[in-house]
């Protein structure tokens, strides 16, 4: 508040008195902020206007209705009482009932008016206290506030609708209700998450479709929870009714890849022809985690805008439909609202509709939030909020029209709070009267909006009883005909081959390899060009050495990790692919290894060398994200599902921070193709490795990713060379399908003297799912094989050299899933005498790869071999917080790895696989 009053604190008393005198004569003669102040409750209320001249008070009254009118609006369809608002009482403005019949100038009211104070109050009440109340005066931008005033006050915030438009609204309401009632009768006891009580959503969305097409919008991309989803799919996206009915009867939509999902989580896409234009509609698939679809939709929209060259963000628009309890309760909502205002995530503003049932699953608003409205969290983005009574369809349609026009004018979010009710419980099997007896007593007696509106149109002569009956009969006939087609076996096929930008892609493939080589000349060009900066650009001295070293590395035939990544990205860009890399420190790299974005030491100017490799190259975007994981990861997942020709990479600051976004890993990334047949090539870079940094910066929780792996849904790699990174990143874009890739990326290996690759590994090599031991000269003399993955290899390599153990081979599993079964079987054949097989990991025994890899290793063990585990003791925390303790644990780990005979306790009974050895116990 203090910042809003700074202009007063800076003024002297004489100046204030002078302005106040001018204000009393003519409120329009002083700046707006001073007029509002003088009309305010503390200052103007203490000094009444001159007798018989309520003009000064009128200014404050109009301003108060604009700011607080929504608090007195008739918004609750279950309440007949009109709320009162003390902030609108006349005494606050130096006015009284004696002034009511005095003629007044309505300034600053923008509607045409000539009359008394009493009449002006009626006009203000109709505008701001009717079935549509608007919060907009907190918007700090004057132009946006005035734009809204100009569109609400002249028409008293009511739409001008023709008879046909009003009948169309009625038809849409009746269609929505009839659909729910048909399902209720035909599929008794099945969940559908009915829209009854909130059916006004359908004419609102129909208005959005028509107005969007008229404005030249080409795509609407929708995210919504399960409440009312089937109704929207049927009556807005026009998903065939028989397909929806079939999902009730079979429970398995034809489009499901392997496992499918429940019908009220499914998405759909269609094209609606309206007003001579086509509008593509797309409903995103969504799990029960409600609001988590929000950034996914925004990411998908951003990708579509990039593909179509929609830089103005005018042709593809996101629509997010929310529930009231989730909108105010789930932290992903404010996280996404804030994220979407930033340039890398900006889509030109989203439209939001909160379907406000005034109750959660069973929780009352008073128990769910401290604020007045479910939408109050949206204040952080300074968006207008249109609160509308769900039983007033004309007001709701008007709110939709205003919200769309605002979004298109200012490219900013707009929010509609559709205040309605939920006829049934959380689902149709739930009894809501256990916890909401009074609300549901009112709902039981409440007449649906469609009947109320039908009676109103009949009374006003817009339709007669016969016309109403004709609409009812037509709707019922449509539902019955679709049901009959289903019973007759006429169910339209919904499964489709990839199309559009996905044309040429395949759903299923057992072929995991690809030609990922690149010519030496190309790599040398990338290294040179990535080291160039514009004339006069002052590069930090240490960064300059990094850039120069990358050029020298190719000459010296030793490419490090940052160089390998640079060559992978640069080569893809020059081949026409796009790359999008994001993370909290991705421009520089958390460990200062990347330096993809350079900063002029003198001016701070930025330069991204890989954006300037040559004409015709792909688009390269790299940016630092907010200190957040969930919404950015959801956004990048959504982006990856819409554009197969962009390598989308999300990098965690440290790998364990990915668990903040676990919902996206579990519900979207790992299972999206299995549930929804949605491909994604999203790549996660998750720094992982035990270097004594404590519990929170050691483990990327490899075990959690591996336990999600099945049916080839993910790729999980823990790499040891820059060339391996080069090939695995290029492989993502070179195959005719897309699968998520999880890379346990290194920390200390970024500068390890042995973690380098020769140039031939890039020009002539390929990605290897495992790496054999190049230091073994006599394989038939090897008795023990240490299987490992990642950074630990180099520690074991050093320890073997120290011990002179030529009888031990070190084999790296670079790809943990899909498991390299064939390659490992062939490798074991190279060591005919090796019967002591040890899995060595740096993580505790209950973490890391062991428990999800053991059974796969057992399936390929040579006859008579014994498999042992060498790991830290099972623990509830990934790593020690003490560096000396970490060092001691690692020392003991290495000692057990090279111990002659059993590395730990012997098996309980003769068998090929030994009990896991964890040092001192499990």
Q: Would you mind describing this structure in some detail?
A:
By secondary structure, the protein is of the alpha/beta class. It folds into four domains: 2-143, TPP helical domain (Helix Hairpins, Orthogonal Bundle); 163-488, Rossmann fold (3-Layer(aba) Sandwich); 520-763, 3-Layer(aba) Sandwich (Rossmann fold), CATH 3.40.50.12470; 770-897, Rossmann fold.
Features:
37% helix, Rossmann fold, disordered C terminus, seven-stranded mixed β-sheet, alpha/beta, globular, eight-stranded mixed β-sheet, 31 helices, Helix Hairpins, 922 residues
Question: Secondary-structure blueprint of this entry?
Answer:
Elements: H1 6-9, H2 13-25, H3 32-39, H4 55-68, E1 103-104, E2 115-116, H5 117-128, E3 132-135, H6 142-152, H7 163-186, H8 201-214, E4 219-223, H9 229-235, H10 241-250, E5 268-274, E6 277-283, H11 293-307, E7 316-323, H12 324-329, H13 332-339, E8 351-356, H14 365-368, E9 385-389, H15 393-410, E10 414-419, H16 437-445, H17 449-459, H18 465-487, H19 520-529, H20 541-556, H21 561-574, E11 578-583, E12 598-599, E13 606-607, E14 620-624, H22 630-642, E15 646-651, H23 662-669, H24 672-676, E16 683-685, H25 702-706, E17 715-717, H26 722-734, E18 741-743, H27 760-763, E19 770-771, E20 784-788, H28 792-803, E21 808-813, E22 815-817, H29 821-830, E23 836-844, H30 850-858, E24 866-872, H31 883-897
First-residue to last-residue Cα separation: 59 Å
CATH topology heading of the largest domain: Rossmann fold
Q: How many domains would you count in the coordinates?
A: 4
Mean pLDDT: 91
Spatial arrangement of strands, main beta sheet? 3-9-10-8-7-4-6-5
């Amino acid at each position: 508040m203090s910042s809003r009053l700074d202009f007063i604190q800076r003024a002297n008393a004489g100046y204030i008195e002078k302005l106040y005198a001018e204000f009393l004569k003519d409120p329009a003669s002083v700046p707006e902020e001073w007029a509002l102040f003088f009309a305010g409750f503390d200052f103007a209320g203490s000094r009444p206007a001159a007798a018989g001249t309520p003009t000064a008070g009128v200014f404050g009254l109009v301003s108060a209705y604009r700011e607080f009118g929504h608090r007195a609006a008739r918004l609750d369809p279950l309440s007949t009482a009109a709320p009162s608002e003390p902030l609108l009482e006349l005494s606050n403005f130096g006015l009284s009932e004696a002034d009511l019949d005095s003629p007044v100038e309505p300034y600053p009211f923008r509607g045409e008016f000539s009359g008394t104070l009493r009449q002006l109050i009626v006009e203000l009440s109709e505008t701001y206290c009717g079935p549509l109340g608007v919060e907009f005066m907190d918007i700090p931008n004057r132009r946006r506030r005035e734009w809204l005033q100009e569109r609400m006050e002249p028409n008293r915030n009511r739409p001008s609708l023709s008879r046909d438009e009003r009948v169309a609204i009625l038809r849409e309401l009746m269609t929505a209700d009839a659909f729910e009632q048909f399902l209720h009768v035909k599929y008794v006891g099945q969940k559908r998450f009915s829209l009854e009580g909130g059916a006004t959503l359908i004419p609102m969305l129909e208005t959005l479709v028509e107005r969007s097409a008229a404005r030249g919008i080409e795509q609407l991309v929708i995210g919504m929870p399960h409440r009312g989803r089937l109704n929207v799919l049927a009556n807005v996206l026009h998903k065939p009714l028989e397909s929806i009915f079939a999902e009730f009867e079979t429970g398995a939509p034809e489009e499901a890849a392997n496992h499918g999902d429940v019908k009220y989580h499914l998405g759909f896409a269609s094209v609606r022809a309206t007003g001579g234009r086509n509008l593509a509609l797309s409903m995103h698939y969504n799990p029960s985690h409600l609001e988590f679809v929000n950034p996914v939709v925004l990411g998908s929209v951003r990708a579509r805008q990039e593909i179509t060259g929609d830089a103005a963000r005018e042709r593809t628009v996101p629509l997010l439909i929310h529930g009231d309890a989730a909108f105010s309760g789930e932290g992903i909502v404010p996280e996404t609202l804030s994220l979407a205002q930033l340039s890398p995530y900006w889509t030109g503003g989203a439209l939001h509709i909160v379907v406000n049932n005034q109750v959660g699953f069973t929780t009352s608003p008073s128990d769910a939030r401290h604020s007045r409205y479910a939408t109050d969290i949206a204040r952080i983005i300074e968006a207008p909020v249109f609160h509308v009574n769900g039983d007033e369809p004309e007001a709701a349609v008007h709110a939709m029209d205003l919200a769309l026009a605002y979004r298109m004018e200012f490219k900013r979010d707009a929010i509609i709070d559709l205040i309605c009710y939920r006829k049934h419980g959380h689902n149709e099997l739930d009894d809501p009267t256990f916890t909401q007896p009074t609300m549901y007593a009112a709902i039981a007696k409440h007449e649906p909006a469609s009947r109320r509106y039908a009676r109103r149109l009949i009374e006003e002569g817009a339709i007669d009883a016969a016309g109403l009956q004709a609409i009812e009969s037509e709707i019922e006939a449509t539902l019955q005909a679709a049901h009959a087609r289903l019973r007759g076996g006429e169910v339209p096929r919904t499964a489709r081959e990839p199309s559009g930008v996905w044309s040429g892609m395949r759903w299923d493939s057992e072929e995991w390899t690809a030609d990922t080589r690149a010519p030496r000349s190309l790599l040398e060009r990338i290294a040179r060009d990535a080291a160039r900066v514009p004339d006069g650009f002052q590069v930090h001295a240490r960064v300059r050495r990094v850039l120069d070293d990358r050029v020298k590395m190719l000459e010296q035939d030793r490419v490090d990790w940052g160089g390998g990544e640079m060559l992978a990205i640069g080569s893809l860009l020059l081949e026409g692919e796009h790359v999008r890399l994001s993370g909290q420190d991705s421009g520089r790299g958390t460990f200062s290894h990347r330096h993809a974005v350079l900063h002029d030491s003198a001016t701070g100017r930025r330069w991204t060398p890989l954006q300037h490799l040559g004409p015709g190259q792909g688009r390269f975007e790299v940016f630092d994200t907010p200190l957040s994981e969930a919404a950015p990861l959801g956004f990048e997942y959504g982006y990856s599902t819409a554009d197969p020709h962009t390598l989308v990479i999300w990098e965690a600051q440290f790998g364990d921070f990915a668990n903040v976004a676990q919902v996206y890993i579990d519900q979207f990334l790992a299972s999206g193709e299995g549930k929804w047949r949605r491909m994604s090539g999203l790549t996660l870079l998750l720094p992982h490795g035990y270097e004594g940094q404590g519990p929170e910066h050691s483990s990327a929780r490899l075990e959690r990713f591996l336990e999600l792996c099945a049916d080839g849904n993910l790729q999980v790699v823990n790499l040891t060379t820059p060339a391996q990174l080069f090939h695995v990143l290029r492989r993502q874009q070179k195959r005719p399908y897309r699968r998520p890739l999880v890379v346990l990326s290194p920390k200390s290996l970024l500068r390890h003297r042995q973690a380098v690759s020769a140039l031939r590994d890039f020009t002539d090599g390929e990605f290897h799912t495992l790496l054999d031991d190049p230091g073994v000269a006599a394989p038939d003399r090897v008795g023990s094989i240490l299987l490992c993955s990642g950074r630990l290899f180099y520690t074991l390599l050093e320890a073997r050299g120290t011990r002179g153990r030529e009888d031990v081979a070190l084999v790296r599993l670079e790809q943990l899933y899909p498991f390299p079964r064939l390659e490992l079987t062939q490798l074991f054949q190279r060591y005919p005498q090796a019967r002591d097989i040890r899995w060595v990991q740096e993580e505790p025994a209950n973490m890391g790869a062991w428990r999800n890899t053991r059974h796969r290793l057992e399936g390929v063990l040579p006859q008579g071999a014994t498999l042992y585990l060498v790991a830290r003791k099972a623990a509830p925390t990934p790593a020690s917080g003490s560096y000396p303790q970490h060092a001691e644990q690692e020392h003991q780990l290495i000692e057990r790895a090279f111990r002659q005979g059993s590395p730990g306790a012997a098996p309980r009974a003769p068998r090929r696989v030994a009990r896991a050895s964890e040092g001192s116990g499990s």
